[in-house]
Amino acid sequence: MTDKADIPLFPMPRAAGCPFDPPPELTRLADRAPVSRVRLWDGSTPWLVTRYEDVRAVLADPRISVDATRPGFPHTNAVSKARDTRMKTLMQLDPPEHTAQRRLLTSEFTIKKMEALRPRIQQIVDDHIDAILAGPKPVDLVEALALPVPSRVICELLGVPYADREFFQGVARTLVMDQSDPEQAMAASEELNAYLEALAVTKNADMLGALAVDGAMTPREIAMLGQLLLVAGHDTTAAMIALGTIALLTRPDLRDGDDSAVVEELLRYLSITHTEARRVAREDLEIGGKLIRAGEGVIAVKSTANRDPSAFSDPGTLQVRNARHHVAFGYGRHLCLGAPLARVELQVVYGTLRRRMPTLALAIPPEELRYNENAIFYTVRELPVTW
Q1: 46 and which of 28, 52, 74, 230 could share a cystine (Cβ 3.0–4.6 Å)?
Q2: Pfam families from the entry (predicted)?
Q3: Phi–psi pair at 48, nearest 5 degrees
Q4: Among the ranges given (195-204, 220-229, 247-256), the one the predictor scored with the smallest mean pLDDT
Q5: Which residue has the higher pLDDT, 314 or 379?
Q6: How many CB atoms lie within 10 A of CB 324?
Q7: What are the DSSP calls for 281-339, one per residue?
Q8: Edge-to-edge strands of the sheet including 35-37?
């Protein structure tokens, strides 16, 4: 039997000088042991699934659960364990509860509705770029554009006052960082829940208030859902705006490509969810020729799936291609609800930067950029740019 000390520890560090690539150990496992064991912080040894078809199989299989309270669920750190076991949102619900709750929201995040928001998103992006162009050089693009744009968009969509952004962004930082204190993180989460519950009950929020009027969810359920949408709705897109901009600055030839195709390729190439998709088997099943028994944890690695040569030719190269079948947003019944919104935001941001700031460039050498690996979402901490 393999000694636990010989099992690789997950999550794994990325290689210095290769900020956009999956960790080398993940790539090695995808090549040599695509379904294998890894070791987590608590000593548990879930299965790691790394290839495209196997990852899609995991994400679509009804025999595999997202319920973080089930024994064997792979928690990647103490904060994630506290958060995922105490807050049951769409991400931690199996059918039929997941089906019922998602049905209430699906109509709010349709492609048609998100496209209707494009003019407003364009205005928000233009306002921030106006401020950047009128200000001093260099500027931190994270603080000046990547973070405020998705924050403002999701606030308007949910009906949350943007003036309170420092509060909920602070809670978000606490919840997504691996090294936070679990009790401190949950106290911050509870404070945000109380805030959102009050918004929903007083009918001062757009989407949240509409759910309260409908009566299909309790105020507390609405608050927890609102927290998921608020935190994930700005943090993920902010990470993609910053990382995608760096990638495009290294490949100016891609700036003239179709905005939609460029966005899909960046989503495939970057795959920002550092802790990947975590599940637990409800019953025995086989994935990639390996028997996974009921109660064993499973981590589906989207970053290596999106670099699988069986699904994408020359996957380590950033190029405009048909990459729409990537799994950056997941797959199956838990496909990211906000994917249509994220796509519109990214298309508008990258396209507007290309048109309005054609001479945009890094203000420091690329090797001096600092990346944040101790979080759910991989991103750059600061992005000093000039033009």
Answers
A1: 74
A2: p450
A3: -110, 125
A4: 195-204
A5: 314
A6: 12
A7: ESS-EEETTEEE-TT-EEEE-HHHHTT-TTTSSSTTS------TT--TT--GGGS-TTH
A8: 35-37, 47-49, 297-300, 277-281, 64-65
The two tokens of residue 284 are: 């025995």
Residue 66's closest CA among 101, 94, 95, 96? 94
How long, in residues, is the chain? 387
Q: Which residues make Cβ contacts (< 8 Å) with residue 231, sequence separation at least 6? A: 168, 171, 172, 175, 176
Rounded to whole angstroms, the Cα distance separating 258 from 114 reads 19
DSSP per position, 187-251: HHHHHHHHHHHHHHHTT-SSHHHHHHHH-SS-HHHHHHHHHHHHHHHHHHHHHHHHHHHHHHHH-
CA 236 to CA 151: how far, in whole Å?
A: 10
Token reading at 179 = 């090294």
Tokens at residue 153, please? 């968009």
Q: Of 325, 354, 330, nearest to 258 (Cα)?
A: 354
pLDDT band at 354 (very low <50, low <70, confident <90, very high): very high
For the domain spanning 4-378, the CATH number is: 1.10.630.10
